[in-house]
């Protein structure tokens, strides 16, 4: 599944916030058509890392190569234009705006009337309803405000949007954390589908089972550093779980919390 | 040579009338070869003005020229200035008695109530029985005094014949229109300066009352002069701000240089300006008139 | 993935609402109710005061049009999540520039106007640039410009002409096509005809005897209508409109979704400055001169109109039509109180009460729209 | 484990938001010393339900009995005073305030100097550091602003706070969704511990495994209605998962997403 | 649960910072730097203008003290997440009430003052009540009160006394203990002694010959210092202070954690009104009269001082000491520009520029504290 040429090559990325060193030199390659899982403890730097990838943060040090070319994103807009779609952990939705306006935010469909270019609301509404239904969410209507959706519903809108507009790289920061069972299954199935279309997926999760279900390669971050990347099959669920916990022993329940958390 | 005089006014810094005052002291300063400064509270807050007088005194000038628009607020700081050795002349507002009270050398100005009263008497003689006073600066006491004086001069009750017009020209114009619309039998209009007079002129032009209604105004300005010339405005009360600024500087300089001082107060107004003899006024309106 | 039904599924968790109620629930509703109430009130209390004859109507229409012009700019900017306290000072400053260019420097009036527009929008852009670059709240940045621009509006004429009112623009503007665009009147023929037929009042005495009391439709009103239409179309019908909502709703989220938030905000600051300059130009052309104190407190009046019209002060929600209705209400009330003969120093008290009442009504309506929170 | 007298009895709770019916009559009993899991699809009404329990929302209809007495909370403060501590899904942290100020928000420790009652900062700092360490998070310092913590770190602060101040009922709304493996294990262990102390725990999760690990009883919500309550042991993981998905079939992955999601 | 080490673990992910840098990073830093800069500048440019003689120092101290009094209230309110645009109108209104009660109605001055304080804080509470109950932004609610209170401050004296200034309070206050608490001076003995020894200037003529030009420390300054200390202690050292931060940081979260947010906000509105009334009372007692136009624009000045002092306009962050320094800077600059002989119409331009500069500096400092954003 991995080809010789990585789509994105992140080399020795460092990111400092004031006196805090969030990333202390992380190198990761992402290949087209793979689902690359980014795992690690809370505060390990996963979100910070993918934010440098999607143009939100500028790395303090280190290089980003996109299709072999060095890249400098000034702005998330640049990253989107280059084909990197991101669903952030803290959502990218505007609560007061309707679902369909949110869905097409930044990618508004245009209908031309003479010289005027107008926002094609009908088209937007239709597509939004369809895409959401595909993800297993029945909206009350396309003009419902996002602010009235439950946390999981919002998350689903964000993912559906990123998938709909296609991209070379799809970055998902804990997309399943707030989702119900059915929505989770949908998201995992979606990841599987787009990966097969040759899209590179970067998938952050704390759930070992979700990671193993769709991941091709697994990179574990710990306190701003990488503990290395493993291929699928090279590593067992238990090993992965130990790595994700940063090598520290887990609290155990008297009852049975057998196997993986 | 090089004495320093500070003029403190009570006007907010956008008030156009005070511009003549600024030009007056500047000219006097140049001619007498003294240093002059103009200061005012930016929002027209008299309590701030009191501080400015204190401060002016602290900076050690030879003399202070100030208005006395509220005796209660300003008398303290002025007295303190006088006592600390700064000579003071009161200009523009206040009364000669109050000026003596605070220890000022003299008073140069136009008592507002009296000016309004005189105007009222004149209007009464011309057959006016009711009027509209367009007050664009309602929170200032002197502007209310003018309207009150005018009413008393006419011998009528002020009542609600005074409107708070605000300072936006369109609002002034349309409020005047609205008032005249609801009270069409109004005999006369009194405006308190260019700020209210200019839009009022337009209002009268628009509703066709221009030249028909009796129109008097305080203080001069470019448009007012045009109105006088066109016969729309019957008279303007000129308190000659130029003199209020120019004379105190001259008086103080001569007092400090040669110890000479006029024996009396100077009334710079009220002088009624009418259609006749407008040339000089026209030439210098808004600048020295 | 399970086969999705091709029709929208019904949701049993929604109470049905009458079509009427559904149609009523829109951001402008508060404005509509307010407008009706206000007109009804004044028809009762000031119906026979001349407020609703041709002259009276023109009277409050002009005041409302003034408010509308600045409210459109303020509305779009507010929806984009910022606001501008320097509108009033900008009006004074821009008017002063036109007067200085055309009277003192003797430029043709059209050039003076064009250059002034260029300078004003550049200052608007500077405002916006500082806000987006430093991330400071616009309240503070534009408060600084409130002082700076007012300072210049006083300082410039005083140093250059030694006065704070510069007149004579009317003479300079004689015959200038662009001046007519801001200060002229249209449809004069129609009004003359109406007057001749006795449908509107004519002058009964004075120099203009026989002419209709309302001569024509002032360009001020034309500009107001034009700006409202343009603003409304941009906001609701275009891609850019969606960006305006997004930028104001959550700038960070919008940026992450690829909306050029900074550009949107800067453009909106420029548009606000543009509207203020339209206001200033109309005023200078109508009154023939500029004064240092023009536009005092207008920033608040613009914000009040917008908020009465249902926009959210915090951005992301509102409507240009609502703002226009807000301006109308504001203008009618202000003039209506005069027609009704209310003690004029109480005007401020009424203004405050109406503002309070209007926003409370609007909040209630918004809650009904978005569901209780 | 269940005694005869429920601690909280929610009867026929309905909650309408404008035209939206979020809860259409839900009845649940919570007993002391039990961990009651609230499960269900996204938008099922779980958060809304526990918000009526913790005084954030007033129910449109229905009764709440607390220790047998009818209760009317005007305000979350009343609920807290009555002994109901809640960790909300959307966090209850102030980003600009320090961790220790956040930790003690609303429960500030007092040090008396003469007649003056002062906030005891030293005590607050010490306790905060200790409690956070117990949860497996090493803070940089007690005066670090919460806004600079990662999502999972914040979540942990909120849980540690609720546990520290003790309560008769502890409500946790998806506490583990953003947590790393180690933190999750700690939270589950904590739930286990407080339950044994006789505290009633209401635990919302989308993770069947987490629910089964600590839950005594399971109530499934679906579209604002309850599908019934099951005792531990009465129900298998697969059955529970089907219920949580609202009875609809799940998307399946071509690869293996065997067993529970 | 694994055994926790009893010592705080070191975190290898933190760069070490020098003790000095650590100590420098505080919300007041901008204020401290600003104060030093401003004093240095005026020592150079206006050192010999009388700005730093006894009279000059008293002059800018009093101006700064005025700003401080209202800044303390505005600061706590702003940290609690709201602000009050009606401060200036409240100053005018409260002053007018005292004058009407004591002069027109002839009440004893202490009673007039007490009743005024009661009315003013009640209005503050009303402001706060409307804000928390309706959830409206305080900008709008207090803007309404800006108009309402100013309207009454003009209307009342005009209907009652037919003027806009009511004097004669000084006579009424003769010998009143409470009047002395606001308008008196303390330490007069010390200043006399300083004057006798020639360390400060004395009057050269008139009835007060030989007395020092600066008679004593005005109660205005005492009140300012007192309020700053009380505000600082409450904010940083008490439980209530934590609630103020919490209410402003995120009202919803604070409410969920059991902080009585509504109570906190209403109390802060009352405190702001209290501070405004202290300001008004001091002014009325010092100058012996009240005017309708007192306090114009003071709300902005209070907000500016607070923001210069490093508080966040959006709430949840700030410091009373910072606000006090902001007030000091503001006062010194305002008076210093006069001493330095700057053209007075340019004053506003400078004010705007200083404001901009100060907030940019503060933002930079805050970013350094909380880490890059
Ligand atoms: N803006 C910021 N300022 C200061 N520190 C920050 C900032 N953003 C992140 N950090 C710090 O950087 C570290 C990494 O944060 P990050 O959000 O990348 O963690 P994460 O791996 O995504 O954790 P989680 O799994 O909990 O989401 C955290 O310890 C956090 O405190
Ligand atoms: N303030 C509100 N206004 C309108 N509708 C609301 C509001 N709050 C919640 N809802 C609606 O009520 C339903 C239940 O929401 P709730 O947040 O309780 O779901 P949930 O079960 O917690 O979902 P999740 O698992 O995604 O957190 C949702 O469909 C949501 O759209
Ligand atoms: Mg993260
Ligand atoms: Mg929920």
UniProtKB/TrEMBL annotation, chains A, D:
Transmembrane segments: none annotated. Coiled coil: none annotated. GO terms for molecular function: ATP binding. The keyword Nucleotide-binding applies. Pfam families: ABC_tran (PF00005). The keyword DNA damage does not apply. It comes from the Bacteria. Residues 8-248 form the ABC transporter domain. Keywords: ATP-binding, Nucleotide-binding. This is Sugar ABC transporter, ATP-binding protein. It comes from Phaeobacter piscinae. The lineage of its organism: Bacteria, Pseudomonadati, Pseudomonadota, Alphaproteobacteria, Rhodobacterales.
From TrEMBL, chains C, E:
This is Xylose transport system permease protein XylH. PANTHER family: ABC TRANSPORTER PERMEASE PROTEIN YPHD-RELATED-RELATED (PTHR32196), XYLOSE TRANSPORT SYSTEM PERMEASE PROTEIN XYLH (PTHR32196:SF32). Keywords: Cell inner membrane, Cell membrane, Membrane, Sugar transport, Transmembrane, Transmembrane helix, Transport. It comes from the Bacteria. The chain crosses the membrane at residues 29-47, 59-80, 87-105, 111-132, 139-157, 177-195, 216-235, 266-288, 300-333, 345-365. It comes from Phaeobacter piscinae. Part of the binding-protein-dependent transport system for D-xylose. Probably responsible for the translocation of the substrate across the membrane. It is a multi-pass membrane protein. InterPro entries: ABC_transp_permease (IPR001851). The keyword Metal-binding does not apply. It is found in: Cell membrane.
